[in-house]
Write a structure and sequence with these properties.
Elements: H1 11-15, E1 23-25, H2 28-37, E2 41-46, H3 51-61, H4 64-73, E3 75-80, H5 85-99, E4 106-110, E5 116-120, H6 134-147, H7 149-176, H8 181-186, H9 189-206, H10 223-236, H11 239-254, E6 268-269, E7 277-278, E8 281-282, H12 283-300, H13 303-319, E9 330-331, E10 334-335, E11 338-339, H14 347-354, H15 356-365, H16 396-406, E12 411-412, E13 415-416, H17 417-434, H18 437-453, E14 455-456, E15 459-460, E16 463-465, E17 468-469, H19 475-492, H20 495-512, H21 545-560, H22 563-580, H23 588-598, E18 603-607, E19 626-630, E20 645-650, E21 653-654
Parallel strand pairs: 1-3, 2-3, 18-19
Antiparallel strand pairs: 2-4, 4-5, 6-7, 8-9, 9-12, 10-11, 13-16, 14-15, 16-17, 18-20, 20-21
Helix pairs in contact: 4-6, 6-7, 7-22, 9-23, 10-11, 10-12, 10-23, 12-13, 12-17, 13-17, 14-15, 17-18, 17-19, 18-19, 19-20, 19-21, 21-22, 21-23
């Protein structure tokens, strides 16, 4: 049987195209049918590399009994969360309101008017894992829909009203801080500095001194938190902030979260010590981690951080980059239906590939034993190894080839504008700390891919796959592509990238900005209008669009000096600050923007002669330095000795102009 998903481009939806469930994509036709046939809607949200999505699919959505119940009593809709972050945001908040937590797969029961009346995550076919069974749940809700629908409708109206009140409350708090921007931002540094201080205290309180990271298991990398800690060290000399960042970066690498055979990081660690990962690899995690390791290398000059960043980039270039230059989304955790199977080794396998002597040495170094460290097999790791030993590098290619031929991973090969933006920025930063121009060329080619395939003039689109692009972009698409363009400008020192960033910025403001209350909505006027219109500010696994836009605004103001960017930055900072005060550590990117606004970073103005830029010039300028490029002399910046001239300002003082960097 084929359902209504067969013509979709999303790898996740196509995974369900042959289910006996009569799935629809999210579309008006599904809701028209629900209203016509007077049926509730069963909504399932996930993504193609999600382990528990696979489990629920195999247990229930491939099961004829469950399919018969769904097809008879419900209209069933499948959504790829990565293509529809608006739906994911709204119905994840619904799930959290119902259950106190969330995750994927997300399971929602809706009225034909899209109002939710029950929610959860994974449900087994029959009761288990402390969960009710999906079969019983479907039959129970079907019966209540038929016999006493008013209770379900009351629940639906109540949850929508509650979530709308919650959003209104946030706006009211933001409004209460309104006033003269100059008075509230620039002249109240103590309040702002206090927010940064409070965030540092949050991190210190949650920091795991033994294993690194924050809190207990599971531990997510959240590299933007580490970037904030390094920014604090760079600006204030806070050594404990740097120690927390470094220990976490080293422990994540030494453990099983890093793929020691093929490079790249898995999504998170399931245990406290970073040994056992959740094995899927996401583009956004690896982009943010390259940014963090590049920054650590720049600050410490410890070559190990550079090696980790470059090994991660090598993985991206080898396995996650399309021929057109864009970056794929993710690799699955499962192989042949078994989580982690692709990554696990037994000592005898290593010995067969490398030979006895070399194999035994490799096994000792990477903790590969007969008893195993994960379900009787082994996750290669360096947690038991003291030395940072590179002599084993020559053994990695044959083991990688053996592993690749042994089994395979599903690749989610859609190309997302938002996540591509993060990886472009990562490649730019890696170029600047290594002076390896291939990373810059990779970033430039990926931006050309976005311009050619994911862009129509100033309008971005969410994703591209097999010649087709999906719907118009959301806030995160614009925020992260602007972030990428600013990184390209700083790396390549071409003003065209700055101009292009300004065009996307103007489009984002016109589409998403709430002129009345401040902040940016997740979706704009060109997107489908839904039951809620969220504004996301919290930096979770990925920094929020609002935080990244705050960062972009501050950088645009610092680079250009334009008053409009300053005014918008001040209002955006106040808006997020009203939310961040409850848990500042959850707003790392906003805090970096706030830090840069309060204490302007070093600034270098470069006046070029006939636009002649010395090769790899940006590689000699520290990351997070504000760079202004002038293609000729100006009244405030004359050219010294008729040659390229550098004006450097630090703190509140400027050095005399010079002709060498």
């Amino acid at each position: 049987m084929q359902n209504h998903l067969k013509d979709q481009t999303s790898p996740y939806l196509l995974q369900h195209a042959d289910n006996p469930v009569d799935w629809y994509p999210w579309c008006e036709a599904a809701f028209v049918r629900a209203r016509t046939e007077d049926k509730p809607v069963f909504l399932s949200i996930g993504y193609s590399t999600c382990h528990w999505c696979h489990v629920m699919a195999h247990e229930s959505f491939e099961d004829m009994e469950i399919a018969e119940i769904l097809n008879r009593y419900y209209i069933s809709i499948k959504v790829d969360k990565e293509e529809r972050p608006d739906l994911d945001s709204i119905y994840m908040s619904v799930c959290q309101a119902f259950t106190g937590s969330g995750g994927w797969p997300t399971t929602i029961f809706l009225t034909p008017e899209q109002k939710p009346f029950f929610a959860g995550t994974y449900f087994p076919k029959t009761a288990g894992y402390g969960q009710p069974g999906l079969r019983e749940l479907l039959l129970m809700i079907k019966e209540q829909w038929r016999a006493d629908r008013s209770v379900l409708l009351e629940s639906a109206d109540g949850i929508v009203s509650f979530l709308n009140r919650d959003k209104t409350g946030d706006r009211a708090e933001a409004d209460s801080t309104e006033g003269d921007p100059e008075d509230q931002t620039r002249t109240n540094p103590d309040m702002d500095a206090g927010l940064i201080k409070d965030a540092l205290e949050d991190y210190r309180r949650d920091y795991d001194k033994i294993y690194g990271g924050f809190g207990q298991a599971p531990k997510f990398p959240t590299p933007h938190n580490l970037l904030f800690l390094m920014r604090c060290y760079e600006r204030s000399g806070d050594k404990t902030a740097m120690e927390m960042a470094e220990k976490t970066l080293l422990q994540m690498y030494r453990g099983g979260m890093f793929d020691h055979i093929g490079g790249g990081f898995s999504r998170y660690s399931t245990d406290r010590s970073f040994l056992v990962p959740h094995f899927e690899k996401m583009l956004y995690d690896n982009a943010l981690l390259i940014l963090a390791y590049s920054k650590a290398y720049q600050l410490t000059e410890n070559r190990s951080y550079c090696d980790i960043a470059e090994q991660t980039a090598a993985y991206i270039l080898r396995e996650m980059t399309s021929a057109e230059g864009g970056f794929y989304s993710a690799q699955d955790a499962d192989s042949e239906g078994v989580e982690g199977k692709y990554y696990l080794f037994e000592p005898s396998e290593v010995n067969r590939v490398l030979g006895g002597k070399a194999g035994n040495a490799f096994n000792r170094h990477f903790d590969i034993t007969k008893q195993g460290n994960f379900e009787g097999k082994n996750i290669p790791n360096l947690l038991q190894s003291v030395d940072w030993e590179k002599s084993f590098d020559s053994y990695l290619p044959p083991l990688y080839a053996y592993r690749k031929n042994r089994s395979s991973l599903h690749l989610d090969d859609k190309l997302l504008a938002s996540w591509n933006g993060l990886m472009i920025a990562a490649m730019c930063h890696l170029y600047r700390v290594t002076a390896n121009r291939s990373y810059l060329e990779t970033a430039k080619k990926a931006m050309e891919f976005i311009r050619n395939k994911l862009c129509d003039e100033n309008t971005l689109y969410v994703s591209y796959r097999k010649g087709q692009r999906s719907g118009k972009g959301f806030l995160d698409d614009y925020a992260n592509v602007i972030f990428a363009l600013l990184a390209l400008y700083e790396a390549d020192l071409e003003n065209d990238y700055l101009e292009y960033a300004g065009r996307f910025f103007d489009k984002a403001v016109s589409e998403f900005y709430d002129k009345e209350h401040g902040g940016f909505f997740l979706y704009g006027g060109d997107n489908e209008q839904l039951i809620l219109r969220p504004k996301e500010t919290y930096d979770g696994a990925i920094p929020s669009g609002n935080s990244v836009m705050a960062y972009n605004m501050v950088q645009l103001y610092l680079i250009t000096g334009e008053q409009r960017f300053r005014d918008l930055a001040e209002r955006q900072l106040r808006f997020i600050k009203s939310r961040a005060r409850y848990y500042p550590a959850g707003y790392a990117v906003f805090l970096m923007a706030l830090y840069d606004y309060m204490e302007e970073p070093d600034q270098i103005t470069i006046v070029t002669k006939e636009n002649q830029i010395p090769e790899n010039l940006s590689c000699r300028i520290p990351l997070n330095t504000t760079i202004r490029m002038l293609t000729g002399p100006a009244k405030e910046y004359p050219m010294k000795d008729n040659a390229t001239t550098y004006y450097i300002c630090r703190g509140h003082s400027c050095l005399p102009p010079v002709n060498t960097i």
